[in-house]
Amino acid sequence: MDVLFDQSDAIFDGFWETIQLLLISGLFATVLGTFLAAMRVAPVRVMNAIGTTYVNTFRNTPLVVLFILVVFGLPELDIQYTFFEKATIALSIYTAAFVCEAVRAGINTVAAGQAEAARSIGMTFTQTLGRVVLPQAFRAVVPPMASVYIALAKNTSVAAGFGVTEATATLSALLNNDPQAAYWLFFGIGLGYVAIVAVISTGSHLLERHWAVAR
Amino acid sequence: MSGSVLFDVPGPRARVRHRIIGIVTSVVLVGVLVWVVLRLNQNDQFAYEKWEPFVTPAIVQDLFDGLIVTLEIAVVAIALSIPFGMIFATGRLSDHWFLRWPCFVIVEFFRAIPVLMMIFFLSIKYATEIGKFWVIVIPLVLYNGSVLAEVFRAGIRAVHKGQSEAGYSIGLRKYQLMVIILIPQAITTMLPAIISQCVVALKDSALAFVIPFDEIVSVGNDIRNEFHNSFATGIVLATVFIVINYSLSRLAIWLERRMARRGRASAETPKVAGVDVGDQSIGGAGA
Fold first, then answer.
1. Domain count of chain A?
2. Residue B213 domain-assigned (yes or no)
3. Quick check: is A146 in a domain?
4. A215 inside domain
5. Which tens digits make up the pLDDT trace of B49-91?
6. Could you list the residue range(s) of the whole structural domain that residue B160 is in?
7. For residue A13, what is the domain's CATH number?
8. Which residue of A166, B93, B119, B243 lies most exposed, with the fewest beta carbons within 10 A?
């Protein structure tokens, strides 16, 4: 157990790196994913095709392979970034596909009758969208988005294999130094991830309750 | 256009506008593609020696062998995840707290920690005892099994209440009810979820490259190191995975539709502790 306290600095540094990866790629993925979702529901066929191709490509590629492409492939194209930046790029590209699906699913949960009713009482397109469709879609998006962020939190660990010393890389290094304490290290650092997941799911729970409406 | 609620049926002016937006988007898309191709060409990515390994029979054979290992990892992992998920799903539905609580803790823990953490742990602590194959497979079983446990639990709870009432009324015990009535009805509806989990396991098998093992991504990593063609190798690996996983996803969707036609909804997206497992639907959120 002592090892957790002795190495607490290294462990906290690792988790700080994990959290930075999570927040930065989470932000980029949300922006890109929402944009892709807009393309997928747009009334223009080329945009639909771009969105669908993106989702099918990156959802079916292992994150590790995407990391190989970004971390080792980009330098071959003479594009230079730090390991941390490249990890955020790979994580954002990958997660955007899942964000896109979550947002699209949210929009699809709004029954067509809602928009029809809004239009039949004379609301304009902007009013229909802003007052009827989006507020409902937004609520429906919260739980699946929370799952996407939870998956992202765990996926940041892949950066450990590509030169970023986040929590999982720290675990690996500490395990090599002190195999005797393996179980303490494993469960200690594991609980760190459990805490991150708990924060995200509690947050989504609160938001869901805050916005709860009778349907 | 997916019968979206967002838009009216377009009139003549809107149709013209959509066409213009479509053309502009196409032009931008073509521009981006041309830029990418030029950039690749500038850096000699189309040079024959970058792609030569992938037409060399010996290397293609290595990749193929690697693919077989990848498939083995995924198949064994899923085959073991199903009983794991069943046991823990029934455990969490138990009437006894001393069964319910440990199952809850185990399932939530393994769902929350990264698979890579478990792989590092096993490979450093137990690699010599259990061998590299199990260093990869055990974490996949623990993770996918825990996810499936939540899917199964939701599936069992979705079986109509009258079914368990009927079971009790003819004098079945709880475990008989589970085994004879609830699980058989739940399992067929969960097939699509199981197939989606296969996609997750296939993708996660790539994590083996950190040890490394003999599966396709590790093989690809060796090729990349030898021929300095990371970009080409990455594209080849990605293509292989996309073809397999996309086909599996289509299969899952087809099964789901077929079941829907037969009037059996497939497993509802289970909502557990505010977290929706179901987003992992087709393709999964795993690495």
1. 1
2. yes
3. yes
4. no
5. 889 899 999 999 999 999 999 999 999 999 999 999 999 999 9
6. 67-280
7. 1.10.3720.10
8. B243
Separation of alpha carbons A148 and B284, rounded Å: 10
Containing structural domain, residue A169: 2-210
User: Would the pTM of this model clear 0.95, i.e. be above it?
Assistant: no
Q: Which residues of A touch B3 (CB under 8 A)?
A: 112
One-character DSSP codes across B239-253: HHHHHHHHHHHHHHH
- Yes or no, beta carbons of A112 and B209 under 8 Å apart: no
Q: Cβ B217–A62 below 8 Å, yes or no?
A: yes
Q: CATH number, domain at B90?
A: 1.10.3720.10
Whether residue B275 lies inside any domain: the answer is yes
Answer whether residue A143 is part of any domain.
yes
Which residues in chain B are closer than 8 Å to A151, comparing Cβ atoms? 280, 285-286
Residues A185-201: pLDDT tens digits?
999 999 999 999 999 99
Separation in Å, CA of A3 to nearest CA in chain B: 16
Q: Tell me if B224 is assigned to some domain.
A: yes
Q: Closest residue of A to B38, CA-based?
A: A77
Is A138 contained in some domain? yes
Domain count, chain B: 1
Best of B2, B4, B5, B125 to mutate (most A CBs within 10 Å, chain A): B5
